[in-house]
Amino acid sequence: QVQFVESGGGLVQPGGSLRLSCAASGTAFSIFSGYNLAWYRQAPGKQRELVASIPRGSSSSYADSVKGRFTVSRDNVKKMIYLQMNSLKSEDTAVYYCNFGPPMQPGAWGQGTQVTVSS
C-alpha cells in the first residue's frame, strides 16, 4: 500500500511563500511515475478539497482559488511531490495532504501538514 508523508507547513504572513513536500513509499519509482497525483486541503469546518493535480503525462491543473499562485511538481525518481505556494492568503489556511489524483481515487490519507497564514 502506498503511503504519503507531507511536510513543509508552518506559520506564514499574508503574501508569503511556503514549499510543501510529500514523500511516497510502498511503491517502486517506475510504478510511481504512472500515478496521477494531487494536493488536497481541508480547512476547519470544511470538506477536503482538491487544490492541484499533476497527472502522469498531462499538464497540471489547479483550483480557481489558487491558480497563478500555486505550482505543483513531481520527481518520479525520488517519489516526491511538491507544492510551491506564493502570495498566500488567510483563506489558504488548512491542513494540506497529497494523494492520488483524479481520475484515480485517493488512497490512505497521511497526517497532512498544517499551513497557517496569519499576521
How would you portray this structure in words?
The chain has one helix at residues 29-32, and strands spanning 3-7, 10-12, 18-25, 37-42, 49-54, 61-62, 70-75, 80-85, 94-100, 113-117. By secondary structure, the protein is mostly beta strands. The model has no long low-confidence stretch (mean pLDDT 94).
Characterize this entry briefly.
This protein has 1 helix and 10 strands, in the order βββαβββββββ. The protein has one helix spanning 29-32; strands spanning 3-7, 10-12, 18-25, 37-42, 49-54, 61-62, 70-75, 80-85, 94-100, 113-117.
Features:
single chain, 119 residues, mainly beta, four-stranded antiparallel β-sheet, 10 strands, 45% strand, globular
Unreliable spans: none
Give me the oligomer status.
single chain
Beta percentage is: over 45%
SSE ordering? EEEHEEEEEEE
- The CA-CA distance between the termini, in Å, is 40 Å
Give the number of DSSP strands.
10
- The number of helical runs is 1
Largest sheet composition: 6 strands, mixed
Helix content: under 10%
Provide the spatial order of strands within the biggest beta sheet. 2-10-9-4-5-6
| Category by helix and strand content | mainly beta
Radius of gyration, Cα only, in angstroms? 13 Å
Gross geometry: globular
* Average pLDDT level: 94
SSE inventory with pairings:
Blueprint: E1 3-7, E2 10-12, E3 18-25, H1 29-32, E4 37-42, E5 49-54, E6 61-62, E7 70-75, E8 80-85, E9 94-100, E10 113-117
Parallel strand pairs: 2-10
Antiparallel strand pairs: 1-3, 3-8, 4-5, 4-9, 5-6, 7-8, 9-10
